[in-house]
Amino acid sequence: MNKLLERISNGVVKDNPTFIQMLGMCPTLAVTTSATNGIGMGLTTTAVLVASNFLISALRKLIPNKVRIPSYIVIIATFVTIVEFLLKAYLPSLNASLGIYIPLIVVNCIILGRAESYAAKNPVVLSAFDGIGMGLGFTVGLTAIGAFREILGAGTIFNFKVTPANYEPTLIFILAPGAFFVVAILTALQNKLQLKSATNGSAKSTLSCGGNCGSCGGDTCTTNREKIEASKEIAASKATVAKKTEAQDQKNS
């Protein structure tokens, strides 16, 4: 039980994907025009995270290493499609608000990162709770940013007015630049208070790429498993060359 609670607290607090690791910034900046959009996107991503982590962990010993990333993407895309259809059927207004960012969950760095760094190496239950933790952490981050922008930009939160009658909303906060302003302000506060954050170098990402997805060159992250395989191939090549050299020496002698 302690391990399960640790996976949840790790995602929500210790390694929060939004405020600590600074991952998934594309949907974070794009959809958080309101608290409703933030919590909707966060819970949608959580559902995909939990389901994909569960299935990938269950199949981790059956998926060949060489095709694991394509396999993960197919699994994630399947669950994203299911979630998208459910939103269209039962929450059409939320689906319209989130738009293209629902299908883009497939390439969300958080989901693929957790699949590669955790679900592929750990038991099913732990992987599912890891997905819950990371998903809730992402939801908290998006909801907080969305609420901040909605209050400043519209004077409301969850469509309820919370500001004085004479308050004049600052519309820029619910426009595209407002997302950058809010994230910059929150990041500056983190650094000022010396809280753990990827921007001040104090956060160690649990992703094998260190949280810097750009270093992957648009391909898969470099994992320890790949390094071990590369070392084995080099060792095998050296052994082959040594045997050929030894055989040639014996033939010449």
UniProtKB/TrEMBL annotation:
Membrane-spanning ranges: 39-59, 71-90, 96-113, 125-149, 169-189
One Pfam entry name: Rnf-Nqr
InterPro entries registered for this protein in UniProt: NqrDE/RnfAE, RnfE
Keywords of this entry: Cell membrane, Electron transport, Membrane, Translocase, Transmembrane, Transmembrane helix, Transport
Membrane topology: Multi-pass membrane protein
EC number: 7.-.-.-
GO biological process: electron transport chain
An example Gene Ontology CC term for this record: endomembrane system
Domain of life: Bacteria
Compartments where located: Cell membrane; Endomembrane system
Broad class of the protein's primary localization: membrane
Similarity remark: Belongs to the NqrDE/RnfAE family.
Subunit structure: The complex is composed of six subunits: RnfA, RnfB, RnfC, RnfD, RnfE and RnfG.
Role according to the record: Part of a membrane-bound complex that couples electron transfer with translocation of ions across the membrane.
HAMAP family (alphabetical): RsxE_RnfE (MF_00478)
Protein name stated in the entry: Ion-translocating oxidoreductase complex subunit E
Protein's organism: Mobilitalea sibirica
